[in-house]
Amino acid sequence: MHSVVERELELKLVLSPERSIPVPARLTYRTDDPYAVHITFHIGSDHPVNWTFARELLVEGVFRPCGHGDVRVWPTKVDGRSVVLMALSSPDGDALLEAPAAQVSAWLERTLRAVPPGSEAERLGIDDGLAELLTPTPADDLYLRDPWPSDESSDER
Fold it and tell me: What does the pLDDT look like over 114-138, one tens digit per residue?
């Protein structure tokens, strides 16, 4: 059985040090995709913007700067409030988003209870899938049988 942990919250798209605009977003974690977090940004267009990246990156980013390339996350304070900043980069552009640290942390805690760190691989069922793929079938016996019986099997002289 798979479950989903979601949280709606309002992020801020940072346009400059003095200016930001609110962006409604949804954080989603699915136990059938245990390594990833999904963020959907509702930007007032017909299609929301979706980002997916490692849950571990967001967990670490709540405490210290982390990430390289397309996704970087770090904690800071803005006007005395604890926030988590997410710098996202894509071919379509870059964005710096500010999220309330307490809300992100509470949501992450729920995901960590749903699938504790280190147990993600168990949720994927990789071992079960491999065992199923590697289980011999009756057709394997036909495939593995020698198609040319040995000439030495007969004792005719």
Answer: 999 988 887 776 666 667 777 777 6
